[in-house]
Design goal:
The complex is a heterodimer of chains A (about 375) and B (about 300). Chain A is an alpha/beta fold and about 375 residues long. Chain A has one domain. Chain B is α/β, with parallel strands linked by helices. Chain B has three domains: about 140 residues, no CATH class; about 70 residues, no CATH class; about 80 residues, Immunoglobulin-like. The chains are: A alpha/beta (about 375), B alpha/beta (about 300).
């Protein structure tokens, strides 16, 4: 069943106004030889527009088995709903040509328990192939090799598709571009640079961002913005220390760096699985849940704004603290948060999404976000 | 910035107590001179070595260089603790000779450290390291050249206290290039540090980490002679004469470092790399502009030296 009406979401935004909480933002210096294109990929041609597809059959919660035909239909309908085309191939062709070299930014920080679902990635690759992008022009990329290796994406995509990671050994910056970086001194750390993954600046012409729907102990939630930002740059964990995190401003700042911003043309939120506490990892099975949905758009802010309510709604249903709760009473060092959803490691910064909107990355105001909901 | 000449280049000696029966193995390692237990000098000399009798009282004993990884639990990130002796050498320019008794796989690191600081040193390795130690000596011999003035732009007055020693240690670990001086000299140094003054209160020095941060802030990162990106366990030392600079880089971490990015103050468009134990010995992405030179070392083992020219 499909509802073909665009719904105007009208939920009330959380009352925390980040601007009043973050008067002293870190000083950032962005170094890049790249100029923005006339129409950067973020927020792209569909600012404030999200196609949200839910399919009960998409994944079996008990076995976590993914139903590939359902996923295929979710992607087809989501892309059509986003672009207004009647043929999904036309939708893909709006974004990609046979000449493109396409990076697919997966999220594997919780792998192999939760990650950009390989069946979803496989279907994305199939659609790229349908518009003429050859396998060897497709690059699945992430930061850490160990995480990606645990997923075995190669089993879900045609031979020739490249699977690339920036850090074969943790901390190596060989896979990052020395000419493109953001410099900031958060806590007096010695290495003050975060460099962009080399293929983003040196190889890709387009990027598809495929995050998961997850709670995040520092950022509040991790979605499109966090995945494309922290997942494309080196040395980002330095933005957290003690109970403080600078995700509020660092995520959006990284996402604005060229050519990342211009080349990231499509956002596909993979919410088949989700994590409502303990993210971005998923060490504890009891915090995993199954939204069984995907979101499609070009505006990472709008999608993340919707995701925020999914995660916080689930936390509330589970009687966990809100991602917006800034009180120190539930902040605790150590590993207790692994098992207790009322304990956090950091003061969370879900305001990073609204902050990103102030950088021109998308639409945050729910009243201005057009959501087209589709039920399969 | 001040200039102070290195001592003549010194290669470390081996302290070897395995007995003259192991002479062939030592010779195969390319080692020609060594300290041996009293009474063995003749036998070693007869085997063709320059041998001296070892007397521990002649040396200042040093801790083994290396790195410990201590978890910063709240941040869930690893925070390496570098054990390095460079600050001791900077502090103690009294012509002492030093002694390293180092565990397996640390002998090359100790040799590189002693060489970079131009100190007389004797190294007692694990017997399994004799080959690696010999390779490091050969590498050092190969890169050795006439000394140039040491480069530093922080002058610090040392009261000899343990607290100041720890400040020196933290400065060295952060690649804040300093020299110990007798009195502030603003003409020679970008920053003069004297603990107990208004700018550097004594109570602040009780936290050496914070104190080193304070020094860094007052100097500013722009004025730093050396910045290293991509590793917390590589420490540097520089020497130069205005036209050329030699950058010594010591990796205390035990493993290879990939993709080290280095920034040196001053524009030097020409550079060459020598590195031990790695395949790639070309500088990558060298860029000299805006008052600084940056380059990447694709892969680095224990020690690398970069020669830059204007």
């Amino acid at each position: 069943m499909e509802r073909r009406t665009f719904l105007q979401a009208a939920a009330t935004a959380p009352a925390v106004l980040a601007a009043t909480l973050h008067e002293d933002l870190p000083k950032y210096r962005i170094v890049s030889p790249f100029q923005a294109t006339a129409h950067p990929g973020m927020p792209g041609p569909y600012p404030g527009k999200v196609a949200q597809v839910h399919a009960e059959k998409s994944i079996d919660a008990a076995s976590e088995k993914v139903d590939v035909p359902t996923v295929r239909e979710m992607i087809a309908q989501g892309m059509r709903a986003l672009t207004g085309d009647t043929d999904a191939r036309d939708s893909w062709a709006r974004f990609f040509t046979p000449a493109d070299v396409v990076g697919i930014k997966v999220n594997c920080s919780g792998a192999p328990r939760i990650m950009s679902t390989p069946e979803v990635v496989g279907e994305i690759v199939r659609n790229l192939g349908a518009v003429g992008v050859k396998p060897d022009q497709i690059w699945i990329y992430e930061r850490f090799q160990g995480q990606v290796d645990s997923v075995h994406y190669d089993r879900y995509v045609p031979a020739g598709v490249n699977i690339w990671t920036a850090e074969h050994s943790r901390g190596s910056i060989a896979g990052y571009d020395p000419k493109v970086y953001v410099e900031a001194n958060f806590f007096g750390e010695e290495d003050t640079r975060s460099n962009l993954s080399r293929p983003v600046s040196e190889r890709f012409t387009k990027i598809i961002n495929v995050p998961n729907m997850k709670d995040h102990g520092a950022a509040g939630v991790t979605g499109c913005l966090k995945n494309i930002a922290y997942g494309s740059f080196s040395n980002v964990a330095r933005s957290h220390s003690g109970f403080k995190t600078n995700t509020y401003s660092f995520i959006g700042t990284l996402a604005t760096v060229e050519p990342l911003r211009s080349r990231t043309v499509l956002q596909i939120m993979d919410g088949l699985r989700g994590v409502w506490h303990g993210g971005p990892f998923s060490f504890n099975r009891k915090f995993r849940f199954y939204p069984k949905q995907m979101m499609f758009g070009t505006d990472p802010v709008a999608i993340d704004r919707l995701e925020l309510d999914v995660i916080d709604g689930k936390r509330k249903a589970e009687h966990a603290t809100s991602v917006w709760d800034r009180s120190m009473s539930h902040i605790k060092a150590g590993r207790d948060y692994d098992d207790n959803p009322s304990i956090d490691r950091f003061v969370r910064e879900p305001g990073h999404i609204e902050y990103a909107s102030t950088l021109g990355l998308g639409v945050y105001d729910l009243q201005k976000i057009q959501v087209r909901k589709i039920e399969l | 910035m001040t200039l102070c000449f290195f001592l003549a280049a010194l290669l470390p000696w081996l302290h070897w107590d395995q007995g003259p029966a192991t002479a062939d193995a030592v010779k195969q390692a390319g080692i020609e001179r060594l300290y041996v237990p009293a009474g063995q000098e003749s036998a070693w000399k007869a085997a063709g070595f320059e041998a001296r009798s070892f007397d521990a009282a002649q040396f200042v004993k040093l801790p083994a260089p290396g790195v410990e990884y201590k978890m910063n639990v709240a941040a869930a990130t690893s925070m390496p603790w570098v054990d390095a002796n460079g600050w001791r050498f900077e502090r103690d320019r009294g012509g002492h000779a030093y002694y390293y008794n180092v565990p397996w796989r640390k002998a090359p690191l100790a040799a590189a450290e002693a060489y970079v600081y131009g100190v007389e040193a004797v190294i007692h390795p694990d017997a399994r390291d004799i080959g690696a130690f010999g390779q490091m000596l050969a590498f050092l011999r190969n890169i050795d050249r006439p000394p140039m003035p040491v480069m530093a732009n922080i002058g610090i007055i040392d009261d000899g206290s343990a607290a100041t020693g720890e400040v020196l240690n933290l400065m060295a670990r952060r690649n804040l290039l300093f020299q110990v001086v007798q009195a502030p000299d603003p003409k020679k140094y970008d920053l003069a540090v004297q603990i107990g003054t208004k700018d550097f209160p004594k109570e602040e020095a009780a936290n050496p980490y914070a104190f080193a941060t304070l020094i860094r802030q007052k100097l500013t990162d722009e004025k730093r002679l050396l910045r290293i990106y991509g590793s917390d366990v590589v420490l540097g030392r520089m020497a130069g004469d205005g036209e050329q600079v030699r950058v010594h880089l010591i990796n205390y971490g035990g493993g290879k470092v990939e993709g080290l990015r280095v920034r040196v103050r001053g524009e030097y468009p020409h550079g060459a790399l020598a590195a031990i134990g790695v395949k790639t010995t070309a500088l990558v992405d060298l860029n000299a502009a805006d008052g600084a030179t940056e380059f990447t070392i694709a892969e680095m083992g224990v020690y690398a030296v970069v020669d830059l020219k204007r």
